[in-house]
Amino acid sequence: MEKRFSKVMLAVLFISVLTLVVMVTPLVKAQTLSLSASQGAVGSSLAVTVSGFASDEAVVLSFSNSLMLGTITVGDTGQGSGTFTVPSGLTAGDTYTITASGQTSGDSATATFMISGSTSTPTPAPSTTSTPTAAPSTTPTPAPTSTIPEFPTWIILPIFAIGILLSIALVRKKTPKK
Q1: Tens of pLDDT along 111-156?
Q2: Residue 75 binned pLDDT confidence (cut-offs 50, 70, 90)
């Protein structure tokens, strides 16, 4: 009888953990980094937009993880934008990786940027999103709507605990007493 009870409890635990994973998965957001141009000269302006970061997080932007571009503090939606000057010390003709690093979450996103040899207007970058975007602004843009409802994180653990307790109660009810 105890072996049967152990197997049932193991199955209940497995189903509960699987349910928890399924509930938490929609809460994971991908971080993005969008640039207003794919190339530009040292000293030119570059508009940057980030999204998917933790609420009210400072996101540090750097070239090839060594030369600082600036910091954007995202809003409560995890999105933010800013305009920065391409720093000196970068070689014309080289392509650099710009990294956006969340200082609280540790999350990051990257984009590439080529340094042009002139001070001409930056070449617009091709859009990496499937929807058209407006010109970057200094205010955070609203988060895109999702077809999967997001549960508040504080409610996931109580639902998980209630599921386990109900499962135990059902197993005890069906288990004959000696």
Answers
A1: 999 999 854 444 455 544 434 444 444 444 444 433 444 455 556 6
A2: very high
Looking at residue 37, the DSSP 8-state letter turns out to be E
- In eight-state DSSP terms, residue 118 is S
Identify the CA nearest to 34 among candidates 104, 113, 95. 113
Tokens of 149: 């409802």
Q: Does domain 31-124 have CATH number 2.60.40.10?
A: yes
Cα 44 to Cα 122: distance, rounded to the nearest angstrom? 7
Token readout for 84 is: 């920065």
Residues in the chain: 178
Contact 41, 119 (CB under 8 A): yes
Give the residue extent of every domain in the chain: 2-26+153-174, 31-124
- 3-class secondary structure, 31: coil
pTM more than 0.70: no
H-assigned helices in the chain: 2-24, 153-174
